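User
Here is a favour to ask of a fellow structure person. I am asking you to supply a protein in sequence and structure-token form. Please set it down just below, with no commentary around it:

Assistant
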Amino acid sequence: MTDTEAPIVLSERNADGVVRLTLNRPRAFNALSEAMLAALQAELERVADDETARVVVIAGAGRAFCAGHDLKEMRAAPSQAYYEDLFGQCTATMLAIQRLPLPVIARVHGIATAAGCQLVAMCDLAVAADDARFAVSGVNYGLFCSTPSVALSRNVLRKQAMEMLLTGDFIDAAEARARGLVNRIAPLESLDAEVDALIARIIDKPRVAIAIGKEQFYRQVETGIAEAYVIAGEAMACNMMDEAALEGVQAFIDKRPPAWRRTG
């Protein structure tokens, strides 16, 4: 089956509510075509409506995670309106990750370049193979990675982000972890096990607490500190009134494990 015959984004879901979305253009190093961006956004929106889903993993088929935008497609019929629509679609897809009420984990192997690096940065967490490499390399082709810079500059220190954007140079997985772009590193043969280990630390927590916490985290991080405390205080008060938190606090008082419902 060729890349064009196969689904452009593969979706799998296990009994624990872990949804795996696989970018499926391996011959093109999973370049983000218009169709792939739209398909990925549609899958994320579908998962958002699934109250039994708990975690989303975004992975890439073949030898790479994602090589960024499809440059051949971008050059086929250039126009200002086309490019505005393309980058608007990319933004909508990236924001769908942040707005999803579930943790999203990037499973990274091979390369993650330009909008592929942006995709890693937009995910809540990232686990990388130890031979993975990252770059925002558009500047090498005369195109500054402006939209990837939005996500990158919110993950790594400003001067480190600017160096990557100005030079287009690759960094390896160890440097990506040191800079805060990824959380964990593992040998490629152990990458799935490392992702599963991270999922295991999340999936037994109440879904509602994670949903409230993720939403307020991104709201407060973009505001001044006084407003951030208002947002955080409102979120905690709302969370505290949920039965999962009430049970968790009572269990702590009673010195027993909390008896959470599986979907809570």
Q: What stands out?
A: The first strand starts at residue 9 and ends at 13. Residues 37 and 90 are 6 Å apart (CA to CA). The mean pLDDT is 92. The beta strands are 9-13, 18-23, 55-60, 104-108, 111-113, 125-129, 133-135, 171-172, 184-186.
